[in-house]
Amino acid sequence: MTHGRRSLAWLVAPVVLLGAFVSFVAATVPPRAVVLPGALPDTLVMGAYHIHTRRSDGSGTVDDVMTAAARAGLRFVIITDHGDAMRTSDPPAYRHGVLEIDAVEVSTLAGHIVALGLDHSSPYPLAGTPRDVIEDIHRLGGAAIVAHPDSPRAGLRYGGTDEGFDGIEWLNADTEWRDERATHLVATAARGVLRPSEAIASLFRRPAASIARWDRAAATRPVFGLAALDAHARLGWRLTDEPLGWTLARQPSYEAMFRALADVVVLDTPLSGDARSDAARIIAAVRAGHVYGIVRAFAGPASIEFTAAQTNRAPAAAGDRLPAAVDTVFRVHVAEWPSAAVTLVRGREIVAAGQGTVSYETSRPGVYRAEAQFGNRAVPWLMSNPITIGLPRTAPAIEPAHIDLTAGHGIALPANDGHWGVEREPSSSGEMRVADDGLTVTFHLGDGPAHGQYAALVHALPGDTGVTGIRFAAHASAPMRVSVQVRLGGERAGERWRRSVYVDPETRTVDVPIGDFDRADGHTADRIDPSRIPAQALLFVVDTLNTKPGTAGTLTIGDVQVAAR
Questions:
Q1: N or C: which end of the chain has fewer CB within 10 A?
Q2: Range(s) of the domain holding residue 548
Q3: Domain check: are 88 and 112 in the same one?
C-alpha cells in the first residue's frame, strides 16, 4: 500500500507542477498589443533594422525575411549580416512589396559596428580598432552605427570611445534577454506560444546606459539613434563559426520580431517605388535622424511629432539642429494615444511632461529628445531622435596627428643604412629592395585559412630609447592597411604596440604618435605609456587582420624618422 501511494505521488507531482506552471504562464501572459485606429501617412515609412540571415548567423534566407516583413506590414528592412564589408552588397530591391536594404555588421577589437550606405565594397577586410573601422566606413561613404553598445555579453559590448560613430542603437532586442534568468526565459518562451511579439517586448527594460552614451555623443556632433531588432530567428549553440552549425529552433520568428519593434522613417514625400532612389532616401533620412522607434507590441500604428520653433526660422524636426540658443518652443504630440505619458528630455533631465501633448519654451542650449510611455511599461513606447539647439552643427574637424621631432631627439632610419630586414611567417614570403623613394617589400601572404600569416619590414632600434612617435612616407600597390608596430624591450621584452594606418598608391606622409598605439595582444587593462619603455624594433606589418590570406602586393616605406625620449 505504501509503495502504491509513493508511485502515485511520483505520477501526480509532475502533473501538479506542470499545471502550476501552465497556470502561472497563463496568468502572466502580457496584454495583447493595442490596435490604434487609423493608419500612418505614406510619408511615415515603418521598417526593421538589424536583421541576420543564413549569410551569417540567422536561420532564414533573405526571401524568408522579406516574406515575414510583408506579413508584418513593414515597408523596408535593413539587413545587417556579419562580414568584413568585402562582399558586394545586394542592390536595393523590392521583394514582396518590401524594400530590401543591405548593410553589414563588422566585428572590431572592441565590439560591433554596422556599416550602412557604403558606396561600394571594401578592397580589404574591415577590422581592428573601432577608430580604424569607423575611419574606413567613412572613407567608403557609409555611416557607422554602434551595435548593442551595452550588451551583458562582454564580447558584444562596445568598448570604444564616444567619438567618431554616426549612430547608435539606443535599444537592442538581443541585449534585452541576455541578463535574464533561465527560468524567466523559459516562461517567456511559453508565453510566446500565445502572444509571441508581446512576450518578446515583455523582456524590454529601459536601456539607460545606451541612452546616456547617445546623449553624450550627440552633445558633440549629430548622432542618430535606432531601435534594433538584432533578429536571428534561431535558438541553438555555436558549433562552428558563422554560418552557425546547429539550430535547435527557428524562434523567435522574424515575423514575431517585426511585430515587436520597428523604426519609422519620416520623409517629405512618399516612396516612389524605385528601389535605388527609395533606399537612398531612407538611408539619408536615417543618417539625418529623421526616424523614431516604436515598440509595436505595446500599441500601434502611432507617431510622435517633435518640433522646435524659433522666430524667423523654419521649424525644426527630430534630427535637426538649431545653431542659436535663443527662445525656442518645443512641442511633442502623440495624436493616436492622447493618454500617452509624454516627456521632453534634456540629457538626463526631464524638462517637461504631460499627457498626449507637451509644450516647452527655453533658451538653454542642449540636446533634447522626446519620449512617450505606454502605460507603466519600463521601456519607452516611442522614442524620437534629438533636436539640438545652440551647439555646433558638426563635429570639430579632426586635425592630422603631428609629432615633434625637435623634442628630445629624432632618429632617422635611412633605407640604405643596412639595418632593415624582413620578418615573415613561414608560409608567407617577403622580399625587400631599396627603391628611389624608400624601401619596397614585395609580399605574398600564405594561402588557406588565416593562421597568423604576415610579412614585415623591420628595423632594430638602439634598445635604450623610448619611442614617442613615428613619421614616414608610404604608398602601396593597392588600398590596404599597414600595422605600424613598436616592439618593446626591458621588462616588457617582445611586447608589441601597434597603430593601423591606411595606405594606397598615392604617396603620403603620416605621423603616428605613440599615444595612438594599442597593445597588439588586445590587453588594454594595464594601459601603460609605451614611450617610457625602451624599444627594440620598429615594424611595418602586413597581416591578416586587414589583408586576406593569399594576397600579394608591394608596400613602400620611406623617410622614416623616430621621435624618441
A1: N
A2: 409-564
A3: yes
